[in-house]
């Protein structure tokens, strides 16, 4: 992607201070989603960064990861698999708990969503501390999936989320802060 397009995407991401709580600078991606050309370039960029041409499944994380994951899956001719917050998936699940700054959270995947040996790309909107993505990667590995990488629209690199994803395949981000 040329640097002009990247700058345009970066300038379109809206910073919302103190959302959802004081001290958090929320990266609002909805203006990028609303622009047809920028949305298409963003999906292209998230795919190109991985170098992946073919994959069996793309896993997207609840909820904004569904948008990016599903669009990437469609482009790659892959299936899409949601990782959801605990209690949302209707069928038999496997789950994993992970720690947040305060307390814990749980995410789940359908037991039959990934077959052993299938190649899997993880997608989400934003890599912050890496807790959520790390949990999703654990679920993929428990299912026997072969992780080919993770792709994020945005990375908050000062939070060192990549450290938590170490050993789970290459990590890519289109925009880094
Ligand atoms: P983490 O588990 O800390 O890596 O958090 C990742 C998830 O939290 C992502 O799926 C984002 O949707 C959301 N998130 C965390 N921090 C921000 C932020 N500053 N702006 C927007 N979304 C965020």
Principal-axis shape? globular
- Strand fraction band? 25-35%
Q: State the distance separating the first and last CA atoms.
A: 18 Å
CATH architecture: 3-Layer(aba) Sandwich
The tally of strands reads: 9
- Percent of residues in helical segments? 25-40%
SSE order, as H and E? HEEHHEHEEEEHEHE
For the largest beta sheet, what order do the strands appear in spatially?
Answer: 5-6-4-3-7-8-9
The DSSP helix count reads 6
Describe the structure.
The chain has 177 residues and is of the alpha/beta class. It has a single domain (52-176), classed as Rossmann fold (3-Layer(aba) Sandwich). The chain is 32% helix and 33% strand. A hairpin with a 4-residue loop joins strand 5 and strand 6 (104-110). The longest helix is centred in the N-terminal third of the chain and has 13 residues, at 36-48. The radius of gyration is 16 Å and the shape is globular. The two termini are 18 Å apart. Bound molecules: adenosine monophosphate. Adenosine monophosphate (AMP) binds at residues 24-27, 61, 64, 124-133, 161.
């Amino acid at each position: 992607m040329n640097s002009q397009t990247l700058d345009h995407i970066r300038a379109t991401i809206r910073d919302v201070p103190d959302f959802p709580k004081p001290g958090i600078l929320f990266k609002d991606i909805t203006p990028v989603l609303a622009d047809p050309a920028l949305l298409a370039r963003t999906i292209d960029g998230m795919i190109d960064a991985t170098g992946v041409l073919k994959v069996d499944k793309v896993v997207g994380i609840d909820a904004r990861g569904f948008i990016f994951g599903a669009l990437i899956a469609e482009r790659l001719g892959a299936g899409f698999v949601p990782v959801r917050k605990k209690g949302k998936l209707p069928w038999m699940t496997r789950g994993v708990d992970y720690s947040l700054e305060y307390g814990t959270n749980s995410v789940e995947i359908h037991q039959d969503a990934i077959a052993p040996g299938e190649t899997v790309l993880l997608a989400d909107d934003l890599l912050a501390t890496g807790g959520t993505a790390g949990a999703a990667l654990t679920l993929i590995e428990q299912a026997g999936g072969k992780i080919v990488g993770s792709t994020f629209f945005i990375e908050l690199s000062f939070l060192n989320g990549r450290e938590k994803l170490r050993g789970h395949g290459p990590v890519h981000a289109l925009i880094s802060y």
